[in-house]
Amino acid sequence: MNKINIENLNDYFEKEITVSGFVDNIRNLQWVQFVILRDATGKVQVTIEKSASENSKMVEIINSLPVESTVKITGKVVKNEKVKLNGMEIIPTNIEVTSESLDELPFNFKDLENVNIDTRLDYRFIDLRNEKNNFMFKVQSTLIRYMREYLYNNDFTEIHTPKLLGAASESGAEVFEVKYFDRSAYLAQSPQFYKQMAIASGMGNVFEVAPCFRAENSNTSRHATEFTSFDVEFSYINGYEDVMNLEAEMLSYALGKLKEELGDKIEEVFGQPVVVPTLPFPTMRLQDVYKELEERYGYKVEESEKTDLTTEAERLCFKLAQEKFNHEFMFVTDYPAEKRAFYHMRDKDGKLQGYDLIWRGVEITSGAQREHRYEEICKNAKSKGLGDDVKFYLGFFKYGCPPHGGFAIGVDRLTMLLLGIPSVKETQFLFRGPNRLNP
């Protein structure tokens, strides 16, 4: 591409260039006009001397130009230590207006502190012009790039599975039903079944980054009806510990690379350091977690609640992991099998071969070794009352299937925790929840 980004203008001192962007601000003084030009990579000052006759047309354009219009500016990049903005400016020879902002902005996107979140989401295209919000998605993209990179380096294949299903497969009460010509279809809760089909196909190691849909009427800071999931599945494991180890290695690798590339700016913009976790991640059994939470912090729950981590128990796990292990992450194992999906493996004693991963007080992953033996997975499905809905899935295991396991991470939730953002409403490009289907 021939386009020049503002962040790269240091490479063009004393050269004539063309650069495009939004008009961020205009200071129209008696003898000079200062225009601040903004693109996705930064800002630069454009300086127009009013007294120069050759500038008369540009002066006229700027006199009537609303901020947030877009322009294409041709000129010379020069150093100027007096300019506070990066010590440089562009002396223009031509300004072309490529679009004009016609209305007053619905809110000041440069100061979002007192702007209602629903107003921001109604005008998300304006909200995302905020420098912090714009950078947030660069961070998210960079983190996912390095997670992908780790998997590519370890012989994983990226796949793309369908999001329209012919059966309400995993849990009928939590799927969206849509009209599909003359019959019903359902939006996929996850690519789980198709990831396992790839394993049964002999593909070895696979992953997908794609939308998932959950018809849960949850109005919390960390739930959405549509979200982006980073799903991983791989073959010939010896146990669920292999799954935990791979996830820990992937996250440590990606966060380390992210820190190298963007760590300083992340801390500057979000006040949140990128902490690269050490290996291995600490692990505790669910019953031991509750025991420690009671002994250390006086946190007690009824025995009936100890089949899973409560929201408060998750929150306290961050404190526990820091105090006990000097770590931000913690695997929790030994969940009751009846609380987990039928495709999670149980050992000969009925013990679940899976885990949750807690980071900064929030669960970011449920992972497991999967049941790959046909007779056993049929038995598990029957125990959950599943029949025809999963018949197509059970067929994957009739003709041999390697031992395998995997996990999934919610990208939006991961970003929320990484940057200390209060809600996934802000870390999703466009949030979808029970009360929001637009824009």
Beta percentage is 25-35%
What's the level 1 CATH class of the largest domain? Alpha Beta
In spatial order, strands of the major sheet run: 6-10-11-16-15-14-13-12
CATH topology of the largest domain: BirA Bifunctional Protein, domain 2
Mean of residue pLDDT? 96
Distance between the termini: 31 Å
Instruction: Supply the CATH architecture of the largest domain.
Output: 2-Layer Sandwich
Domain count? 2
Provide the succession of SSEs: EEEHEEHHHEEEEHEEHEHHEEEHHEHH
Beta-strand segment tally: 16
- The outline comes out as elongated
Largest sheet: number of strands, sense, barrel closure: 8 strands, mixed
Percentage of residues in helical conformation = 25-40%
Radius of gyration: 27 Å
